[in-house]
TrEMBL record:
It comes from Papaver atlanticum. This is Caleosin. PANTHER family: INACTIVE PEROXYGENASE-LIKE PROTEIN-RELATED (PTHR31495:SF1), PEROXYGENASE 3-RELATED (PTHR31495). Belongs to the caleosin family. GO terms for molecular function: calcium ion binding; monooxygenase activity. Pfam families: Caleosin (PF05042). It comes from the Eukaryota. The chain crosses the membrane at residues 40-59.
């Protein structure tokens, strides 16, 4: 354990974004917790398994600088900022805080059909515009994050709403989705 409470109020937005996947709130995210978190927000078994493997194997080492590799692939929530990549939207600053100005700028630049939502085409355009030349790792990272996000969170008109995107950045979204799913299950 990292000695860090995953629920502390001085967490950065990026720490909150990932803390949802730390199911037992001990500050460390294991592959099975990523799987459970993905299932809790409604992803299928196949994609949740794939996400758990890819995220954990890609990010674990970066959050454990100087530590011996661990085959359980733990991700330390405290150090998640080390996993930031390039070719992103720069809405998370270098410390992993949410930058409201950059968020508005992103919408200003890329939402055309609707002021408060992105279409699939606008999203693709944004990903292309963010690409730093030859930064293939960053291209893939951004593509996977945004395409899964769009697929899971688009509304019935095929739009990704601005407030949904804001909640993804601030770390509230996954919690909301889990609660909504739980309510739906109760109703049915
Ligand atoms: C299905 C679940 C998830 C979705 C849909 C998702 C989606 C996103 C999106 C849309 C961004 C913004 C990227 C940008 O600004 O261009 C982001 C950022 C990020 N996410 Fe997630 N995420 C998920 C789960 C996770 C998990 C489990 C982790 C790690 C434990 C993680 C780590 C990160 C990091 C490190 C960033 C910052 C990237 C950067 O600024 O360079 N995400 N995510
Ligand atoms: Ca944990």
């Amino acid at each position: 354990m990292s000695g860090f409470s995953a629920t502390s109020s001085n967490q950065s937005a990026l720490q909150k974004h990932v803390a949802f996947f730390d199911r037992n709130k001990d500050g460390v995210i294991y592959p099975w917790e990523t799987f459970q978190g993905c299932r809790a927000i409604g992803l299928g078994i196949g994609i949740s398994t794939l996400a758990a493997f890819l995220i954990i194997m890609g990010l674990s080492r970066k959050t454990r600088p100087g530590k011996f590799p661990n085959l359980l692939f733990p991700i330390e929530v405290q150090n998640i900022v080390n996993c930031k990549h390039t070719s992103d939207c720069v809405v998370y600053d270098a410390e992993g805080n949410f930058d409201p100005e950059k968020f508005e700028e992103m919408f200003h630049k890329h939402s055309q059909a609707n002021a408060n939502a992105l279409t699939a085409d606008e999203l693709s355009g944004m990903l292309k515009a963010n690409r730093v030349p030859k930064d293939y790792h960053g291209w893939i990272g951004s593509w996977v994050e945004w395409k899964i996000f769009f697929y899971v969170c688009k509304d019935k008109n095929g739009l990704l709403q601005k407030e949904t995107i804001r909640a993804c950045y601030t770390g509230d979204l996954f919690e909301q989705m889990e609660q909504e799913r739980a309510c739906e299950k109760k109703r049915n």
